[in-house]
Amino acid sequence: MRHYDVVVVGGGIHGVGVAQAAAAAGHSVLLMEKTDLACGTSSRSSKLIHGGLRYLESAQWRLVRESLQERRILLDIAPDLVRLVPFHLPVYRSTRRRAWQLRLGLCMYAALGGFDRSTRFRTLPRQEWSRLDGLETDGLGTVLRYYDGQTDDALLTRSVMASAQKLGAELALPATFVDADLTDDGADIRFTHRGRPEHLHARVLVNAAGAWANTIATRITPTAVLPAVELVQGTHLIVPGELTQGIYYVESPRDGRGVFVMPWHGEILIGTTETRFRGNPEQVAPHAAESHYLLSVLRRYFPRFRHSAIATRHQAFAGVRVLPVGKGHAFHRSRETMLITDRGSSPRTISIYGGKLTGWRATAEHVMLRIAASLPQREPRADTRRLRIDPAPAPDRSAVRP
Ligand SMILES: Cc1cc2nc3c(=O)[nH]c(=O)nc-3n(C[C@H](O)[C@H](O)[C@H](O)COP(=O)(O)OP(=O)(O)OC[C@H]3O[C@@H](n4cnc5c(N)ncnc54)[C@H](O)[C@@H]3O)c2cc1C
């Protein structure tokens, strides 16, 4: 039987992040992914590396501060993967959030970002409004411009895995976790690799299966207490068209939620919705009502789409997030990552629930701290705060498919 210090289940951003951090700390690591890297939520996000301006409304200060720190680090270590983009906040007579409230929010955002240059914002003079990609100006009173990060989430995930592999991590793909028994010194793990049953031992089993995390957790014996979480789906639309001035963060007239309208590979990406999801995350799919909701937001703010046939020409995709169970609207629920271990000291397994694309590196750092006592001392190979991440080449399908 093969032995590893760390075995990771799930090739989304959290799994590859932990594989990179563990390999950087000098550990032997294997990551298993059942379908393909980033095939889950990590290719269906809004593709933003951001502090999350809207999380200020739910007082998630710690999350915003850490996310802005991570944004700073990623802009430094992955300049070809994460770039700073202008964001516009238009304020109309009918907008619920007033200009003074948004300015106050942006001041807090700048403070939590350490008043870094990238946290500067300004009010756009009226004569510049005509350059804003045909933004509706009827009833418009103010446009605020600030900056946040944009990335290609799937490419980022593959690139972090490539970085982990350079540090010695192994990738098993396609490889499906079946079950595991916790032992005195770790976990005995059964999985299938390219259709064949295999067996290995890890000192720590990391469950980074995203929306499937509870399924994995229930297949580990003894089973840890499962957190009270639920799945919420988010849909995005891609419509033909161009935006040249950056991203627009607009308010849905229907319920006041913030919606992003973004340039994306020469088209326009609009998202997202938040709809309770029940069922197998494999089968998540956009609903017609979500598409109507997003198209109505686009038409409200960009008149050129009011009479065009985009309803028939758009593409849509949906992803699932893991959120703590709660009464209010998902929009206001905590986006903090939850780390659940089988025991307080020297855990044999740890599960990652929720979290953000932006925080993947910090989450991996937190995971390594929680499992440090279960792992042997090794010679570190790199510091992930400084290790450069370059874009991974396009995947060679023939090499990863059986
Ligand atoms: C609509 C939406 C928009 C978002 N936008 C943003 C954003 O703009 N910025 C931001 O910071 N965050 C954003 N997020 C959050 C962020 O995308 C997620 O937190 C993150 O992608 C989750 O990554 P993950 O690795 O935990 O899960 P996933 O990416 O889903 O990865 C889990 C992996 O586990 C694999 N797996 C499952 N079962 C098994 C098994 N038995 N064996 C092997 N492998 C298995 C799956 O195939 C999958 O690849 C968004 C989330 C949603 C839903």
Order of helices and strands: EHEEHEHEEHEEEEHEEEEEEHHEEEHH
Helix/sheet category: alpha/beta
Contiguous helical run count: 9
Q: What ranges have pLDDT less than 50 throughout 5 or more consecutive residues? A: none
Largest sheet: 10 strands, mixed
β-strand amount: 25-35%
Number of strands: 19
Distance between the termini: 22 Å
Unique bound compounds: flavin-adenine dinucleotide
Q: What is the residue-mean pLDDT, rounded to a whole number? A: 94
What's the shape?
globular
List its salient traits:
alpha/beta, ten-stranded mixed β-sheet, nine-stranded mixed β-sheet, 9 helices, binds flavin-adenine dinucleotide
Describe this structure in a few short sentences.
24% of the residues lie in helices and 31% in strands.
Question: Mind sketching the topology for me?
Answer:
Elements: E1 2-9, H1 13-24, E2 29-32, E3 48-49, H2 61-77, E4 82-92, H3 99-112, E5 122-123, E6 140-151, H4 153-166, E7 170-172, E8 175-183, E9 186-193, E10 196-207, H5 213-218, E11 220-221, E12 229-240, E13 247-251, E14 258-264, E15 267-271, E16 275-277, H6 288-301, H7 310-313, E17 315-324, E18 337-341, E19 349-354, H8 360-371, H9 397-400
Parallel strand pairs: 1-2, 1-10, 2-7, 4-13, 8-11, 10-19
Antiparallel strand pairs: 3-6, 4-6, 5-6, 8-9, 9-10, 12-15, 12-16, 12-17, 13-14, 14-15, 18-19
